[in-house]
Amino acid sequence: MGAGCAGAVVGGGPGAARGGRAGGGSGDGYGGAGMMVTEEERVARAALCRVIEPGDELAGRWLRELGAVELLRRLSAQPYRRGALTGASERRLQGYLTRVARVRPRQDLEAIGALGGRFLVPGDAEWPSQLDDLGDARPVGLWVRGLADLRRWALRSVAVVGSRACTSYGAHMAALLGGGLAERGWVVVSGAAFGVDGAAHRGALGAEGATVAVLACGVDVAYPRGHAQLIGRIAQQGLVVGELPPGDHPTPGRFLLRNRVIAALTRGTVVVEAAYRSGALATARDAQRLGRHTIGVPGAATSKYSAGVHELLRGGAVLVTDADEIAELVGDIGELAPDRRGPVVPRDLLDPVTARVLDALPPPGRSASVSDVAANAGTGVDDALGRLYELHSLGHVERQGDGWRLTTLAGRHPNTRRGGP
To answer: In terms of Cα–Cα distance, which of 101, 65, 97, 67 is closest to 80?
Structure first.
């Protein structure tokens, strides 16, 4: 069956029709162009989502070598033919066989369709090809809720992750970065968890920008429960994505494996706050292995919540403090952060000789003769007098009898150059 029929099986929203057009390899191998995704291929991959755990590289190798349809056929054979699949222990193989007996691909495809979503597989036009960098750990497929095109959004996306038990500073920075990136046209990707993840999503949503939540469970499962409203809002305004079929619940291991998808989807990963054992650091290390930008936001040197970030920075991550700096790092040529400098004060606008004459005046409350000023400034008397009149017109000095002194205004603002003591 052709691609259009495959989209109809999924029953998704606007993205479903895009699902079957050629855009990459459809099953065996990575990145093959010009192949159509058949209904049989899509249904087989939907079934395998209930058999293969996220990040399973052994099963990923089978999938690459055999294709989804043949792999499912060998796993489903009754009885299983010994030697049909190699490399797995008897216990591990038995686990696959137990799971394959409970697959329900068409029911899962109908469930995602009822949500207005779709099931993406390699070869779909909407499949983000950067996930192929994961090799045999690449997702079998992606279940998606939301109207936007995931491939296009992923091309200009940044991950913002961090600790669940973040400080108020961490939450503030995550929201600030999420909103700032969204305002600059970047898609903010995170995991919808409590703490930094949720703050980053809310920042992007508050700026009416784009955000993607990558879940470690089915996209119809609100986890954590306290973020049910947030995840629902992301599905309406952005995208909710997961490797696991509808109804599947998260486990601790699935959270860590989910992080590799966040890292692979995006141009770079920003870690806002993370202790030494934070899962956010796993996302950053995945990003490093994949050749993506790894970025850290500094915190207090005494804060355990920033200790992991600081270690990341010591290991080669790039320090940033705002969305402009992130955009400059991960963006295209010309997306530059503004120059950073302190405020320009009137003293900064003086030429070097005039500034020297100003420096030659005594502290506020005392005056000096023109000859004393000239001697202290290392210039002639006539030149010093001309400079003093110039400083007088600018409000820096005033005459007192035959002498010159700093004005009250100048006395309140000491004669220090920018960056001075």
So the answer is: 97
294 within 8 A of 284, measured Cβ to Cβ: yes
Give the pLDDT score at 30.
56
Question: Cα(124)–Cα(72) distance, rounded to whole angstroms?
Answer: 20
DSSP 5-34: HHHHHHT-STTGGGGGS--S--SSSS---S
Packed helices 381-393 and 370-377: angle between N→C axes, nearest 10 degrees: 100
287-337: per-residue pLDDT in tens? Answer: 999 999 999 999 999 999 999 999 999 999 999 999 999 999 998 765 666
Q: How far is the C-alpha of 274 from the C-alpha of 198, rounded, in Å?
A: 15
What is the average per-residue pLDDT within 247-253? 93
Cα–Cα distance measured from residue 399 to residue 140, given in angstroms and rounded to the nearest whole number: 83
Higher pLDDT, 183 or 347: 183
Identify the CA nearest to 372 among candidates 349, 326, 405.
Answer: 405
| Spacing of C-alpha 224 from chain mean position | 20
With residue 213 as reference, give the H or E element that holds it: strand 211-215
Helix axes 39-48, 3-10, angle to 10 degrees: 40
Host domain of residue 194 = 130-330
What is the pLDDT, as a whole number, of residue 3?
34
Residue type at 96? Y
Query: pLDDT by residue (tens digit) across 159-218?
Result: 999 999 999 999 999 999 999 999 999 999 999 999 999 999 999 999 999 999 999 999
| Residue 399 located in a structural domain | yes
Task: Fill in the DSSP letter of residue 339.
Answer: P
Beta-bridge mates of residue 368: 404
The reply to whether 78 and 147 lie within a common domain is no
Q: Are strands 157-161 and 142-145 parallel, antiparallel or unpaired?
A: unpaired
Where a domain ends, among 302, 330, 358?
A: 330
CB 287 within 8 A of CB 258: no
Q: Please give the average per-residue pLDDT across 218-224, as a whole number.
A: 95
- Tell whether the model's pLDDT for residue 12 goes beyond 50: no
Asked if 52 and 155 touch (Cβ cutoff 8 Å), the reply is: no
Number of domains observed in the structure of the chain: 3
Residues forming a β-bridge with 269:
159, 294
Same domain, 151 and 213: yes
Q: Kindly state the helix (H) or strand (E) to which residue 233 belongs, with its residue range.
A: helix 228-237
63 burial level (CB within 10 Å; 0-12, 13-18, 19+): buried
Report the chain's terminal Cα–Cα distance, integer Å. 76
